[in-house]
């Protein structure tokens, strides 16, 4: 019998259907954690509709985390009502892991608070839940129906995914980041390369990346279609997680003879900054082909790139300078912890003195629902994970995706700019 991949091992350890399975088999598996944000409102409505809410209980309040991050603070009466509905539900069901409008984006707060650990099986009511693969957890997003079922039963069906491996080697050039790597992968292999597959990112480049940079890779892997997306299971992960929780855990590593459906190799030594051009993430060009494109807005934030190292590199580029007069730069830290660290370190002051606007932690302008909207004909360079038509406002606007370094350099010059010159 051949060895197992990380995804196969995690699913086997949680399977309620036995462990004699292969890729494409359907199994039921018990869940360690369920994360939901605004979609919790639909769960509440289903509780009330399918059975009177007084008679229905969630399977285990300690294994559910609810956060507000998409519409914070509530921008309309409608969303205020949804917030109120969820707050009452959380109290009634005894969910103590509730993070109201103060804490930030779910995918940053979950690991910060020690909820994501190696070997766990996690579902979330958000598509970018594969982020926790950076912490060696099997995590994926689900729709509202599966979310509701998980809330009630504490288990869910899974189709066992095939696994593909990206072996990434070489030293990243100056001012390039993991975002450039993952955008390059999207451009080279398309946004469908990992549809319902698990990804394992390996190689010395991955080993040398920070945990924050690995989170970017696992997060953006969803845009490649990935079900799970695992970083390197190493001591960096152990140290990071032990800093956040006293709960026990063990790293899960693939077997030497594990079977992969595809293995891709990539050397980043000569990589240049990469840009996802409108209106798909895999419409990728090297920055040399799009440099000079005028922009009206620069957005630094999102669950992909709103971490401290992202704000830090932007501050290094912008320190002592002034953002272009025709550019609005919006900076949205991914969490309160990051916001405070940036303030205490002086990074916030540097960014604001350069002309940036720093917002409260949350999803912010990423999905075009809470400030930072684009008008017709406007262009934005963004560190987020999606650039679909109308994603940040007008369907006639254009969103380009790049690294935080590229976003900062572009904000400074008023056009898409190569950050290697800073």
Topology (elements, then pairings):
Blueprint: H1 6-14, E1 26-30, E2 33-36, H2 40-50, E3 64-67, H3 77-93, E4 98-99, H4 106-112, E5 121-124, E6 138-141, H5 144-153, E7 155-159, E8 162-169, H6 178-189, E9 197-202, H7 204-208, H8 211-220, E10 228-230, H9 235-242, E11 262-267, E12 274-276, E13 284-286, H10 287-290, E14 297-300, H11 302-305, H12 308-318, E15 328-331, H13 336-345, H14 347-354, E16 357-358, E17 379-382, E18 398-401, H15 404-413
Helix pairs in contact: 2-5, 6-8, 12-14, 12-15
Any overview of this molecule?
This protein is an alpha/beta fold and 422 residues long. The protein folds into 2 domains: 6-250 and 258-265, Aconitase, domain 3; 274-421, Aconitase, domain 3 (2-Layer Sandwich), CATH 3.30.499.10. It is built from 15 helices and 18 strands. The chain has helices at 6-14, 40-50, 77-93, 106-112, 144-153, 178-189, 204-208, 211-220, 235-242, 287-290, 302-305, 308-318, 336-345, 347-354, 404-413; strands at 26-30, 33-36, 64-67, 98-99, 121-124, 138-141, 155-159, 162-169, 197-202, 228-230, 262-267, 274-276, 284-286, 297-300, 328-331, 357-358, 379-382, 398-401. Strands 4-3-2-5-6 form a 5-stranded parallel sheet, covered by helices on one side. Strand 12 (274-276) and strand 13 form a beta hairpin. Helix 2 packs across helix 5 (144-153), helix 12 (308-318) packs across helix 14 (347-354) and helix 12 runs parallel beside helix 15 (404-413). The protein is globular and about 60 Å long.
């Amino acid at each position: 019998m051949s060895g197992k991949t990380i995804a196969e091992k995690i699913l086997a350890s949680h399977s309620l259907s036995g462990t004699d399975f292969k890729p494409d088999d359907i199994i039921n598996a018990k869940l360690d954690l369920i994360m939901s944000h605004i979609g919790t409102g639909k769960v509440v409505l289903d509780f009330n509709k399918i059975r009177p809410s007084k008679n229905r209980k969630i399977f285990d309040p300690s294994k559910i985390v609810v956060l507000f991050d998409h519409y914070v603070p509530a921008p309309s009466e409608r969303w205020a009502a949804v917030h109120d509905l969820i707050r009452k539900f959380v109290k009634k069901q005894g969910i103590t892991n509730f993070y109201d409008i103060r804490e930030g984006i779910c995918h940053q707060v979950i690991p910060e608070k020690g909820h994501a650990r190696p070997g766990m099986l996690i579902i979330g009511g958000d598509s970018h839940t594969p982020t926790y693969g950076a912490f060696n957890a099997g995590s994926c997003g689900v729709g509202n129906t599966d979310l509701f079922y998980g809330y009630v039963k504490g288990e869910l069906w899974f189709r066992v995914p095939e696994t593909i491996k990206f072996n990434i080697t070489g030293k990243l050039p100056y001012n390039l980041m993991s975002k450039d790597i993952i955008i390059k992968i999207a451009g080279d292999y398309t946004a469908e390369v990992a549809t319902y597959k698990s990804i394992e990112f390996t190689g010395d480049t991955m080993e040398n990346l920070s945990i924050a940079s690995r989170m970017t890779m696992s997060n953006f892997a969803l845009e490649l279609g990935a079900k799970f997306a695992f970083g390197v299971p190493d001591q960096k992960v152990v140290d990071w997680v032990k800093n956040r929780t006293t709960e026990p855990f063990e790293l899960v590593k693939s077997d030497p003879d594990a079977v992969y459906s595809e293995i891709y190799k990539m050397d980043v030594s000569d990589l240049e900054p990469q840009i996802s051009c409108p209106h798909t993430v895999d419409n990728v060009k090297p920055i040399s082909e799009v440099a000079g494109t005028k922009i009206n807005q620069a957005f630094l934030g999102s669950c992909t790139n709103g971490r401290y190292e992202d704000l830090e590199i932007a501050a290094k580029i912008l320190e002592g300078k002034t953002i272009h007069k025709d550019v609005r730069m919006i900076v949205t830290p991914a969490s309160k912890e990051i916001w405070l660290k940036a303030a205490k370190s002086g990074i916030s002051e540097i960014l604001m003195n350069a002309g940036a606007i720093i917002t409260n932690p949350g999803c912010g302008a990423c999905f075009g629902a809470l400030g930072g909207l684009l008008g017709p004909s406007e262009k934005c360079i963004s560190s987020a994970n999606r650039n679909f038509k109308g994603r940040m406002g007008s369907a006639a606007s254009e969103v380009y995706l790049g690294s935080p370094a590229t976003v900062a350099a572009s904000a400074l010059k008023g056009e898409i700019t190569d950050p290697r010159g800073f």
